Amino acid sequence: MNDCLFCKIIEKIIPADIVAENENVLAFKDIDSKAPTHILIIPKNHIESTLELTGDNINILGEMGLMANNIAKTEGIDEAGYRWVINTGINGGQSVYHIHLHLLGGRRLGWPPG
Ligand code: AMP
Ligand code: ZN
Fold first, then answer.
1. DSSP E strands: which ranges in the chain?
2. Residues spanned by the domain of 30
3. What is the SS3 assignment for 112?
4. Residue 18 forms beta bridges with which residues?
5. Which of 22, 25, 55, 100 has the most CB atoms around its CB within 10 Å?
6. Phi, psi of 54 (to 5 degrees)
């Protein structure tokens, strides 16, 4: 039995505020937003982290990026700019082990990250 939180959101077992969806990718609002726009884009197939990306599944990252850019336009943050973030492992700050791209925008974001 897959006990992954984001797989349960994909299966609609756990509710989420979904903003976009296609055959391979799902996007929903982060429950604890760190910026006026904070959306998570995930593959519908369970991939734990960037460490599991291979030549066979790397295309999904492109699909996630295209969805993120479409959402950036509909959210109206494309002109001012935004950030993509993918955290990996403990030092990267990953807390959910189903790969996800954070789309952050709507304010000036600090750099470097904490
Ligand atoms: P990360 O720390 O990079 O693994 O990011 C995980 C993100 O998932 C965090 O920003 C959380 O706020 C978010 N999150 C956790 N549970 C949920 C949920 N049920 N619905 C939406 N976002 C969630
Ligand atoms: Zn999963």
1. 18-21, 25-29, 37-43, 82-85, 101-105
2. 5-105
3. coil
4. 28
5. 100
6. -135, 180
pTM, rounded to two decimals: 0.98
State the Cα–Cα distance between residues 10 and 61, nearest whole angstrom.
17
User: The domain that contains 78 carries what CATH number?
Assistant: 3.30.428.10
Question: Is 38 domain-assigned?
Answer: yes
Please provide residue 10's backbone torsions phi and psi, each rounded to the nearest 5 degrees: -60, -40
Nearest to 105 by CA among 86, 85, 82: 82
Strand order, beta sheet including 25-29 = 18-21, 25-29, 37-43, 101-105, 82-85
Q: Work out which ligand 1 atom sits closest to the CA atom of 93.
A: 2
How many structural domains does the chain have? 1
The protein residue whose alpha carbon is closest to atom 12 in ligand 1 is: 32
Give the rounded percent of residues in the chain with a pLDDT score beyond 90.
Answer: 97
Residue 91: strand, helix, or coil: helix
The amino acid at residue 77 is I
- Tens of pLDDT, residue by residue over 37-81, are 999 999 999 999 999 999 999 999 999 999 999 999 999 999 999
